[in-house]
Amino acid sequence: MNYGRAFSYVMEDPKWLQKIGIAALILIVPILGQIVVLGWVLEVTRHVINGEPDVLPDWSNFGDFLAKGFQAFVVAIVYALPVILLQGCFQGLNAALVSMSANGGDQAQTFQSIANVLGIVGICVSCVVFIYDLAIGVILPAALGNFAATGQIAGGFRFNEILGLVRSAPGPYIIVLLLSFVTSLISILGLIACIIGVLVTAAYSATVNAHLWGQAYKMAKSLQAGMPPAAPVETAAPSM
Q1: What is the average pLDDT value for the chain, to the nearest integer?
Q2: Does the pTM of the predicted model rise above 0.85?
Q3: pLDDT confidence bin for 236, thresholds 50/70/90
């Protein structure tokens, strides 16, 4: 894999500032903006997987980006659902017991003891969530890559195929996870330029991640087929 390429290909597009700027403006819209930008960057993933020039797509297919982004968002939510439910149940139970402890009269001490036990359980839950998040950080890029390759939401839920991709190329997918922390730091650096800076760096970071998803998918598929990985595209085509 050419990890550096994921960080540099964007600047080779003559209109990259305009395209990243539009993505940043769309990100201002809560949730919906993130969904649209996700659909947009998944087009980059598809380009990489299919061996097409890895330039940034233009914004002429806004409706298509919205549809694909929503489907990818559903995929991500489903993978995160166990953690969402676990944390929600624990927080709800904890809040209920704390409330009963405050208003329980003679039983207040009993409730407080239960709350103390829940504090310990909470630490265990946090550890489980952390481990699960790491696992999803490896698996979800494979799922999104499979979705981008097939163009169907079902591709994101073909668990045997997705786990097969990760098993075939665990190193690349782990590196993708580690580099996602780097792109998160890049997004945080945008705070220096206030809100607009954060949105611009967040849009750029999304394009980096999308390129990495495509590279990891191609690597895994090549290894599954017993072929040497295809060389990454080094030159960008004219802007779309």
Answers
A1: 85
A2: no
A3: very low
Q: Is 131 within the bounds of a domain?
A: yes
Read off the pLDDT of residues 199-227 as tens digits, 9 standing for 90 and up: 888 899 999 999 999 999 999 999 988 76
Tokens 């598929």 correspond to 221
Structural domains of the chain, count? 1
Task: In whole angstroms, give the CA distance from residue 205 to residue 207.
Answer: 5
Burial class (CB in 10 A: 0-12, 13-18, 19+), 89: exposed
3-class SS letters over the chain: CCHHHHHHHHHHCCCHHHHHHHHHHHCCCCCHHHHHHHHHHHHHHHHHHHCCCCCCCCCCCHHHHHHHHHHHHHHHHHHHHHHHHHHHHHHHHHHHHHHHHHHCHHHHHHHHHHHHHHHHHHHHHHHHHHHHHHHHHHHHHHHHHHHHHHCCHHHHHCHHHHHHHHHHCHHHHHHHHHHHHHHHHHHHHHHHHHHHHHHHHHHHHHHHHHHHHHHHHHHHHHHHCCCCCCCCCCCCCCCC
The residue among 146, 168, 169 whose CA lies nearest residue 158 is 146
- Mean pLDDT confidence for 148-152: 93
Domain coverage including residue 203: 3-224
- pLDDT surpassing 50 at residue 133: yes
Q: Has residue 230 been placed in a domain?
A: no
In a domain, 229, yes or no: no
